[in-house]
C-alpha cells in the first residue's frame, strides 16, 4: 500500500472461481458416495478426478497449480515472501483464491486477460475489502486501512457491545502476568478471543501488539484475571475502532524505531523487544516479542 501511493500505481482485486477444483489431483483418492447419490450399488465408491474443498492436500495442489500459471506468465516469486510475485512494474499477492494486483492500468488489464485464459476468475475491481481489512483509496497519494467492521463483529461475538470503553489496552506499568489465586476461565472462549485480537494486532493495530502478545501466553490455562485483561483490550478497541493506518505518497523515506525493556519477565529474566518500520508516513512492519536470550 505504501509503494502504491508513492509510485502512483493502481490496486486491483481478483477472485478465482472454485479455486480448489481448478487444480488436478495428483494422488489417487477415493470417496464414499454422497447420501443423495443414486449409484449402481451401495458398495461402490467415487474416484476423484479433481481436488475438492476439505480435502487435506487440496490447498497444496491449488498453490502448486497457481504457482505454475504465474511463472508461465513471467512472474518471479519473492524468496522472503512466497505469496508475493513480481514482474517489472506489476506485483501480485495471493491468499488462497484472492489475488491483489499492483501496477499500471495497462499491465493489470493485460495480466488479467492472460490469467482468465488459464482459469476462471472474477474481477473485483479496486480493492475495498479483503480478509477483514477495509481499504480506502482517498486519492492517488493517500490510502487508509482499518478493521472497524471486524472489530465490531468480534465485540458482538464476545458480548462486549455494552461494556464501557477503555483509553488504554492495559494499565500503565502492568506486566499482564497471571494473577496468583485466580480461578480458571474457559479455554476455548479465551483462545478464540486471543486469536481474533492477534489477527487485529498483526494486520492494522501495532498499538495492541504488546498486550495481546503477553496475554497469548496463557491460552493453555487461562484465568479469570487473564480474561479481564483481554476484555480491557477489546474495550480499548471499541474506543479506538476508527483508527486507521494511513499511507501518503507525499512522504518518502524509511524510519525504524526500536525498543527493549530490561528483564520484564521476573520468572526468567528475559526482556521484551519491539520495533516499528515506517514508510510513506505509515507503519508497514511491527513486532513486540520476548527475547530468546537473557540480556546481560
Automatic annotation (TrEMBL):
InterPro entries named in the record: RVT_2 (IPR013103)
Domain of life: Eukaryota
Ranges of residues in domain Reverse transcriptase Ty1/copia-type: 3-171
Pfam families in alphabetical order: RVT_2
PANTHER family, per the entry: GAG-POL-RELATED RETROTRANSPOSON (PTHR11439), INTEGRASE CATALYTIC DOMAIN-CONTAINING PROTEIN (PTHR11439:SF440)
Listed name of the protein: Reverse transcriptase Ty1/copia-type domain-containing protein
UniProt organism field: Dryococelus australis
Species lineage: Eukaryota, Metazoa, Ecdysozoa, Arthropoda, Hexapoda
Amino acid at each position: 500500500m505504501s509503494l502504491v501511493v508513492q509510485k502512483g500505481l493502481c490496486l486491483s482485486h481478483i477472485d478465482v472461481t472454485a479455486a480448489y477444483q481448478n487444480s488436478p489431483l495428483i494422488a489417487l483418492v477415493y470417496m464414499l458416495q454422497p447420501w443423495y447419490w443414486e449409484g449402481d450399488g451401495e458398495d461402490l465408491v467415487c474416484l476423484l478426478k479433481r481436488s475438492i474443498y476439505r480435502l487435506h492436500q487440496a490447498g497444496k495442489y491449488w498453490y502448486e497449480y497457481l504457482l505454475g500459471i504465474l511463472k508461465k506468465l513471467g512472474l518471479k516469486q519473492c524468496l522472503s515472501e512466497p505469496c508475493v510475485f513480481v514482474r517489472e512494474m506489476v506485483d501480485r499477492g495471493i491468499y488462497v483464491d484472492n489475488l491483489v494486483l499492483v501496477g499500471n492500468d495497462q499491465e493489470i488489464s493485460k495480466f488479467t486477460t492472460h490469467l482468465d485464459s488459464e482459469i476462471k476468475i472474477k474481477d473485483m475491481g479496486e480493492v475495498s475489502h479483503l480478509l477483514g481489512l477495509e481499504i480506502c483509496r482517498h486519492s492517488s497519494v493517500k490510502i487508509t486501512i482499518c478493521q472497524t467492521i471486524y472489530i465490531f463483529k468480534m465485540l458482538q461475538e464476545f458480548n462486549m457491545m455494552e461494556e464501557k470503553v477503555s483509553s488504554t489496552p492495559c494499565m500503565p506499568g502492568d506486566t499482564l502476568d497471571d494473577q496468583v489465586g485466580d480461578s480458571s476461565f474457559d479455554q476455548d472462549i479465551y483462545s478464540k478471543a486471543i486469536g481474533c485480537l492477534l489477527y487485529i494486532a498483526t494486520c492494522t493495530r501495532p498499538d495492541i501488539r504488546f498486550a495481546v502478545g503477553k496475554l497469548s501466553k496463557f491460552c493453555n490455562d487461562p484465568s479469570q484475571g487473564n480474561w479481564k485483561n483481554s476484555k480491557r483490550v477489546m474495550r480499548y478497541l471499541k474506543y479506538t475502532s476508527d483508527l486507521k493506518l494511513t499511507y501518503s505518497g507525499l512522504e518518502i523515506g524509511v524510519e525504524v524505531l526500536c525498543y527493549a525493556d530490561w528483564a520484564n519477565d521476573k520468572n526468567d529474566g528475559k526482556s521484551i523487544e519491539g520495533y516499528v518500520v515506517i514508510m510513506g508516513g505509515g507503519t508497514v512492519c511491527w513486532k513486540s516479542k520476548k527475547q530468546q536470550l537473557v540480556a546481560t
